[in-house]
Amino acid sequence: MTKKFLTILTAGLLTMLGATAAEQLDIRKITNGTYSAHGVGGMRSMNDGEHYMMIGGGGTCLVRYAFNTGEVVDTLFAVDNTRGCDFKYFDGYIMSPAEDRILIQTKTNYIYRHSFTAEYYIYDVRNKTMVPLSAGGPQQVPSFSPDGKMIAFVRDNNIHLVKLMFGNSESQVTTDGKFNEDVAKKAFLDMFEHYGIPFTPFLEENFWVNDFGLGDFEHVGMGGVFWINNPDFRYFGHEIYLLPNQMIVEHYHVASDYAAKHESWQVRNGWVYNFGIGEPTPNPPALPESQKDKFITVSNFHIRKVGDISALQQIESRHFLMAGDEGAVVTEYGTFHDNDGLRFTNPDASL
Predict the structure, then answer these.
(1) What's the burial of 118, exposed, middle or buried (CB within 10 Å: 0-12/13-18/19+)?
(2) Contacts of 35 by beta carbon, 8 Å cutoff, 6+ apart
(3) Among residues 242, 223, 214, 268, which one has the least CA distance to residue 325?
(4) Could you say which of 3.40.50.300, 1.10.10.10, 3.40.50.150, 2.60.120.10 is the CATH number of the domain covering 190-344?
(5) What is the pLDDT of residue 28?
(6) What global pTM score does this model have?
(7) CA–CA gap between residue 214 and residue 264 (Å, rounded)
(8) 274 neighbors 301 (Cβ within 8 angstroms)
(9) What is the per-residue pLDDT across 175-202, written as a single tens digit (0 to 9) for each?
């Protein structure tokens, strides 16, 4: 094995020396990238597997090519053919999962190595229109949600969320790296307006939001209000509010000073995945990366739409709800809710 390795190494060195016989090796050329391999930048395979796209025209357009011929098919974006475009060239792009929107990266300012800020624009492929991602200043590491309905980005070390289905409304989710209840409530108020839900004085006084202490409110969190939680007669009424594709952390209820809670749910707006015990259901939705590997143990689910009612399958069994891409409002009916009997699969989760 050693002799074979030395033979290959010697052959490689001789090849390199032969290729450079007409040119003296220069340490500066070695370190400045003169002899580095060249690649193709800005190339991305498209969902259909038949086409790819590349930045063209010196950063002025995105061009679609056919894999089988390498020929140009069409131009997906061009700075001189887009309404709302006020720049002459761009530095990069991010395609949405459905390829119906593109985040166009401009005015890139490098901080260190791969870290940079930029000003991004949301380009609508079908309508050929463009609007800024945010008017509040440059952004970092923007990312589409799996369903393409929202875009998260970072500014000044805080997470912001742009909800495309709610008029591109923007919410700052954290401040100083901490969960910001006021901006989380604003995200739900946008959803209330979308569904025509009045924000009554009772809601104004009693409405709450929660990220379960996990710092991933975009994916794991909820809003809610307790209509009634009566320990004497032991009944409970609760409204659950979920943003698009947001899930309640997996949990279960055990006996405390009160019997283990039993509950049922009725969808009022949007739709949900209702996860609980049972055989795994085929074709599950994309679950939050922060939870799916260790902290989700149930894989049986049913899709529940407006008017549908479902109930906890077994006392003390693990369960959770996750909204579809329109968000959801769900009424919960149950026996008395006692926080002392509440348990989370994720040991870091809390109220």
Answers:
(1) buried
(2) 29
(3) 242
(4) 2.60.120.10
(5) 61
(6) 0.63
(7) 26
(8) yes
(9) 877 788 888 898 899 899 999 999 999 9
